[in-house]
Amino acid sequence: MSGASVEAVVFDWGGTLTPFHDVDLLDLWRAAARRLAPERAEEVAAALLAAEQRWWEEAVANGRSGTTHDVLRAAAAATGLDVPTELHDEALLAHLDAWTPHTRTLPEVAPLLTELRGRRIKIGLLSNTHWPRQWHEHWLARDGVLDLIDARVYTSDLPWLKPHRQAFDAVLAALGGVAPARAVFVGDRPLDDISGAKNAGMRAVLIPNNAVPGYDVVPDATIERLPDLLGVLAAW
């Protein structure tokens, strides 16, 4: 595999194309809770955060994906709320609005993607997320990088999420059927990104992040900054 030319590079999103943010997740859920039940906002916000944490634990454990509406429904059930669908939508909008300041693309991303495209390398995005596609697309468009990414795959649209092989297969298919041996994955999570990509037959480049859990896997390369990827690809 080390001798195969690189036809595509696939990136993780949060913590890779965006900075890693150490945020108050409970506060971000308060925005949704105030829409769902203003008089019980603290209780509902805590239930939303607990439901999201359970969702991530179960998703990673069994590889199954889902949506933010699943989180909202679980929290409503836990608190006895009878919430109409339109109010779910309003709560989701409020929550994602609260997240918006933490979704800025790193300034080096656009020049890197432009350089890769100039080298005729296809560019993909594979993000583990329960958020809806339209919000990710909105943020990428806001930052001027949406049209620089040939295939954008969000696990909220899939039955599976990273590190499940089918998530990686989905983005390679969206890129036109690129062979795994000719694709490189770049991410900051050893389990989700690096082990998942390598198990799918891709080469994997790690951007170390001490804030995420470790995993017993050896990346094909490690870089400190995204622009360093160009030197790695040149060596391959």
What do these coordinates show?
This protein is an alpha/beta fold and 236 residues long. It has 2 domains: 144 residues, HAD superfamily/HAD-like (Rossmann fold); 77 residues. It is 46% helix and 11% strand. The protein has 9 helices and 6 strands; from the N terminus they run βαααααβαβαβαββα. A 6-stranded parallel beta sheet has the order 3-2-1-4-5-6, sandwiched between helices. β4, α8 and β5 form a beta-alpha-beta unit. α3 crosses α4. The protein is elongated and about 60 Å long. The N and C termini lie close together (10 Å). The model has no long low-confidence stretch (mean pLDDT 93).
Question: Compute the gyration radius: what is it?
Answer: 18 Å
N-to-C terminal Cα separation, in Å? 10 Å
| Broad CATH class of the largest domain | Alpha Beta
Using the alpha-carbon principal axes, give the shape. elongated
Salient structural properties:
single chain, 236 residues, alpha/beta, Rossmann fold, 2 domains, six-stranded parallel sheet, 6 strands, elongated
Summarize the entry for a quick read.
Helices cover 46% and strands 11% of the residues. It has 9 helices and 6 strands, in the order E-H-H-H-H-H-E-H-E-H-E-H-E-E-H.
Task: Break the fold down into its secondary structure elements and pairings.
Elements: E1 8-11, H1 25-36, H2 41-62, H3 68-79, H4 85-99, H5 109-118, E2 122-127, H6 133-142, E3 151-154, H7 165-174, E4 183-187, H8 190-199, E5 203-206, E6 221-222, H9 229-235
Parallel strand pairs: 1-2, 1-4, 2-3, 4-5, 5-6
